[in-house]
């Protein structure tokens, strides 16, 4: 086993993508997905099959500015893929993968809807999914003033929104709870999460909702946002989201906001010496979880 570990290396991949033209992260037969597109480019450059592990499986239409994944690659395969280049093999890999991504994408020549920013060797203790301590998402809303150049990542509302009521409602949802009322449950998966932040702010002409949690279950951020918007529009009182939380049921009113204004901003990790312990603890709590 030690010989196998010595022959392989783990690469951390940092990437961003415009989710508009993708059917989400997860590979699906016959559909264009982020995982499928990136896996194909990596396999083409490395001339070997690869399997990605990702920090957060974003839904169709959702964007990412700070997504993280990891992949295990035989050291000899990475070296061979660099060819005669004297540059670091990981930098060669990034350049060549990015070239394939740009050629495969629609849109202006030379651009791409996936950008692989870096690939760097990390210890086998690092797990892009389970070593993470939190994920951060931002939902962007334009109220009454619309910029057509931002229509792919901003929700347009005629308004107005009661931001004070939205902030009151958001505060009542913080902490560790069973978020079943705000998730699409999956078989064998827990819906208990710790919501670390849910901030409603004004940033220039936009209203933003910034959510941070140890992990998010399926559609959780969009359902939190949809519920806060019900409050902001005056269709529900500020106490309604907390009452829905306590019900812990999908049978009540479920409001899922559109996906396109949502962006995965950042994935946070502990210091390298804590990667293994964090991954072990996360697996114990969230076996079979889809984040």
Describe this structure in words.
The protein has helices at residues 2-7, 34-46, 75-81, 89-104, 163-171, 220-232, 240-247, 275-285; strands at 8-17, 52-54, 63-74, 114-122, 134-143, 155-157, 175-178, 192-203, 206-213, 262-268. By secondary structure, the protein is an alpha+beta fold. It has two domains: 8-122, Alpha-Beta Plaits (2-Layer Sandwich), CATH 3.30.70.580; 134-271, 2-Layer Sandwich (Alpha-Beta Plaits). Strands 1, 2, 3, 4, 5, 6, 7, 8, 9 and 10 form a ten-stranded mixed β-sheet that branches. Strand 8 and strand 9 (206-213) form a beta hairpin. The longest helix has 16 residues, at 89-104. The protein is globular, with a radius of gyration of 20 Å.
**Helix fraction bin:** 25-40%
Please indicate the percent range of residues in DSSP E strands (runs of 2 or more).
25-35%
Structural class: alpha+beta
Using only C-alpha atoms, the radius of gyration works out to 20 Å
Query: CATH homologous superfamily name of the largest domain?
Result: Pseudouridine synthase I, catalytic domain, C-terminal subdomain
What is the oligomeric state here?
single chain
Q: What is the third-level CATH name, the topology of the largest domain?
A: Alpha-Beta Plaits
- The total of beta strands comes to 10
Coarse morphology: globular
Major sheet description: 10 strands, mixed
Distance between the termini: 30 Å
CATH architecture of the largest domain: 2-Layer Sandwich
- SSE pattern, N- to C-terminal: HEHEEHHEEEHEEEHHEH
CATH class of the largest domain: Alpha Beta
Low-confidence stretches: none
Catalytic activity: uridine(38/39/40) in tRNA = pseudouridine(38/39/40) in tRNA
Family: Belongs to the tRNA pseudouridine synthase TruA family.
Organism: Actinotignum schaalii FB123-CNA-2
GO molecular function: RNA binding; tRNA pseudouridine(38-40) synthase activity
């Amino acid at each position: 086993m030690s010989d196998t570990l010595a022959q392989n290396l783990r690469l951390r991949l940092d990437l961003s993508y415009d989710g508009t033209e993708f059917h989400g992260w997860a590979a699906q037969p016959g559909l264009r997905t982020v995982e499928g597109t990136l896996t194909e480019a990596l396999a083409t450059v490395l001339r070997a099959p690869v399997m990605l592990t990702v920090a957060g499986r974003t839904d169709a239409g959702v964007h990412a500015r700070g997504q993280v994944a990891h992949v295990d690659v035989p050291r000899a395969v990475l070296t061979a893929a660099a060819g005669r280049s004297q540059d670091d093999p990981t930098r060669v890999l990034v350049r060549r993968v990015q070239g394939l991504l740009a050629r495969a994408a629609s849109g202006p020549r030379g651009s791409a809807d996936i950008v692989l920013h870096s690939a760097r060797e990390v210890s086998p203790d690092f797990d892009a999914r389970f070593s993470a301590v939190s994920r951060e998402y931002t939902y962007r809303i334009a109220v009454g003033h619309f910029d057509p150049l931002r229509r792919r990542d901003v929700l347009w509302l005629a308004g107005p929104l009661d931001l004070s009521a939205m902030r009151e409602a958001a505060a009542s949802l913080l902490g560790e709870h069973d978020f079943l009322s705000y998730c699409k449950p999956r078989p064998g998966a827990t819906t208990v999460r710790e919501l670390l932040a849910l901030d409603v702010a004004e940033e220039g002409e936009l209203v933003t909702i910034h959510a941070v949690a140890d992990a998010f279950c399926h559609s959780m951020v969009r359902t939190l946002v949809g519920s806060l918007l019900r409050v902001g529009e005056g269709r529900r009182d500020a106490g309604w989201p907390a009452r829905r939380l306590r019900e812990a049921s999908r049978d009540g009113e479920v409001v899922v906001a559109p996906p396109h204004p949502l962006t995965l901003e950042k994935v946070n990790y502990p210091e390298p010496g804590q990667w293994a312990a964090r991954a072990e603890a996360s697996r114990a709590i969230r076996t079979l979880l889809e984040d």
